[in-house]
Amino acid sequence: MRLAILGGGGFRVPQVHGALLAGGEVTELVLHDVDAGRLAAIERVLAEQAAGAGNAPRVRTTTDLPTALSGVDFVFSAIRVGGLNGRRLDERIAHAEGVLGQETVGAGGIAYGLRTVPVAVRLARVIGELAPRAWVINFTNPAGMVTEAMAAHLGGRVIGICDSPVGLCRRVARALGIDPATARFGYAGLNHLGWLRSVRVGGEDVLPRLLADPAACESFEEGKLFGADWLRALGAVPNEYLHYYYFAREAAGSESRGAFLLEQQRGFYAEPSLTSWERTRLEREATYMAETREGARDDLEGGGYEKVALALMRALAHGERTTLILNVRNGSALPGVPGDAVVEVPCAVDANGARPIAAAPLPDHALGLVTAVKAVERATIEAATTGSREAALRAFALHPLVDSVSVARRLLDGYAAAHPELSYLA
User: Fold this and answer.
1) What is the per-residue pLDDT across 254-302, written as a single tens digit (0 to 9) for each?
2) Strand partners, 188
3) Which sign does the torsion angle of CA 388, 390, 391, 393 carry?
4) pTM tops 0.70, yes or no
5) CB contact burial 43-61 (16+ within 10 A = b; e otherwise)
6) Which of 281, 307, 346, 361 gives 335 a disulfide partner, CB atoms 3.0 to 4.6 angstroms apart?
7) Where are the beta strands (DSSP E) in 102-143?
8) Confidence band of 23 (pLDDT split at 50, 70, 90)
């Protein structure tokens, strides 16, 4: 089996490669990136990882997209348009206006989407022409928005993934003292905007048991983040990214994650090695979303993107039926959301693809937020695919975390001036 990673010079690639070493199913791994220097750095780390491994795939690197896509069975899309400096600028411009600059939520997420969607759409078109039978697994953020834009050209052959829901379910299962493999998790929403509303074991929903126990509630990350009283008021456990919505005032002035990562990764790419990569990775994970917490993150257990992606890949390649929380077109699974909109819900996966499992209707407060943010995502996609500045302004102005049309105008002007990638906006 042949796998291509677009954005193959990215920092997360060794995590995927490390997971591949345990499986042995991928015989060739092709890394594509526009930056040859980053590719060389990651290739060096992968060579150290593979030393002594019996099932290591052959690794090739290329800056030529058609070469990367030739004969592949799977494509992992993990691009970062504008790099970490783009993220730093996104955060700085938002903070200057007193609004959130996080890369997938609020103004920063819109700016990132405006840069990324045009490139993702071009990639989808090329993949459709050169590798029409390949499955595309999208890592690229904002994951729901980018997957929806790519699905207009690839249909159900593109599937978006995120590790936040599976991490949330794992932590809740641990707090309940149950094996996650024995439970059915009722999770629904959009990427970085979802709620765990039920945990069924043998037909019984055991989540109310957790919500009624303050000590158990606050024994895991999301419980500490939101507080037991708020989880009880919601009757659900929100995805950690909902902290930016529920505690918007506290989150808006947080320090720049982009600037931190930019400086951190400069050090790694200057002297790449497996040791420096591992040290940098641990520091990165320990400080993930640290602006929303008191102290460092205490859940560093692996099982993120790479494990979700490989489980998905195995199910698609071999028909190993499984259930995964994924970003796919809604169909009729989540009531109140358009059928062609990409949502994040449990899906039944086999060799035919990922099919969303019907979910109970969201409560009004959640559906209202999902509807508002989906409208913003669709306006961003419209702007990115048509060049409409009006659609881009609408995206900024209608986001729940941007509180003024005047602020939205200044944000759009600031991002357009800072990012040459946005010169297409008329």
Assistant:
1) 557 777 788 888 888 998 999 999 988 888 887 666 555 554 444 544 4
2) 195
3) positive
4) yes
5) bebbeebbeeeeebbebbb
6) 361
7) 135-138
8) confident
